[in-house]
Design goal:
Layout: E1 5-9, H1 20-26, E2 28-32, E3 42-47, E4 50-57, E5 62-63, H2 71-76, E6 85-94, E7 101-102, E8 109-111, H3 115-128, H4 135-145, H5 150-167, H6 177-190, H7 205-208, H8 211-226, H9 230-235, E9 244-247, E10 256-259
Length: about 260
């Protein structure tokens, strides 16, 4: 999944203090509501025209006002502490002297469209960042969208862990939807076979009950929504009336509704 690349200037306006050392120490990036980062996005962190670090977003941004401990620091650094300003935890890679480069763009927060800058950032990040593991973010997403209780969340996470063990591939590091779709189709045809490649003797019910395909389909939907604009993600959230009961075999895509 291709990441968005953003530029973040470390002065909240001309003549204001630099907050570069602060965000590096806190392992956070700062953004605004109308230019919202997503998990996995890369941030070119600059002081003036000098690029000093590359950061990678680890979580969906939240308003700075949701964290009262930031207020004093923001005020000291003359950063707006308001609902339209957000922050997110991030991995930081500080460039060494041979890697630092200039990016002559005055805007404080904006998408990077320059081909050469994008290539340089991708080359550096591919070497210095481990592949992103989405397990924590998927768990949070699953809890927020789950209508069936905590047992489903635990079962789906465990099912994907078992698939990773069987296939010897870390599924929570996979963000290619086509690859996940191929795996899902194979699971649909193979998971219930007691002599098949997905049989897991320590917990055979995961295959028989089709949790492998259900969890893989769910994880694929999570990966898809990461690349959607925020407005589309919000519009795709189910608009359900209270007291609806959903039933149907997991992983088949067949869901029936009963309105109470």
């Amino acid at each position: 999944m291709a990441s968005n690349i953003w530029k973040l200037g470390c002065n909240w306006g001309s003549g204001k203090p630099s907050f570069y050392e602060y965000i590096k120490q806190k392992n956070i990036v700062i953004g605004v509501e109308d230019k919202k980062y997503k998990i996995g996005d890369l941030i070119v962190v600059a002081e003036g025209h000098q690029v000093k670090a590359i950061a990678r977003v680890k979580e969906n941004p939240k308003s700075v006002t949701s964290n009262i401990t930031l207020q004093s620091d923001f005020e000291n650094l003359e950063i707006e502490y308001d609902t339209w300003v957000n922050y997110a935890n991030a991995d930081f890679y500080e460039l060494n002297s041979n890697e630092k480069f200039t990016y002559q763009l005055q805007q404080g927060i904006c998408k990077v469209n320059n081909f050469e800058i994008r290539k340089k950032v991708l080359d550096i990040s591919s070497v210095n960042f481990r592949k992103l593991n989405y397990k924590e973010q998927y768990t949070i997403w699953l809890n927020s969208t789950n209508k069936e209780g905590s047992k489903k969340v635990g079962s789906y996470i465990r099912a994907i862990e078992i698939i990773s063990e069987i296939t010897k591939k870390e599924i929570f590091e996979e963000d290619n939807v086509a690859t996940l779709t191929t795996l899902y189709q194979d699971l649909l045809s193979e998971q219930e076979k007691t002599d098949g490649k997905y049989y897991y003797a320590q917990a055979p019910s995961y295959g028989v009950s089709r949790f492998y395909s259900a969890s893989t389909k769910s994880y694929s939907e999570f990966i898809k929504q990461l690349s959607q604009p925020q407005s589309e993600v919000e519009n795709t959230q189910p608009n359900m009336t209270l007291n609806q009961i959903l039933f149907g075999p997991p992983g088949t895509g067949n869901v029936n509704y009963m309105i109470m």
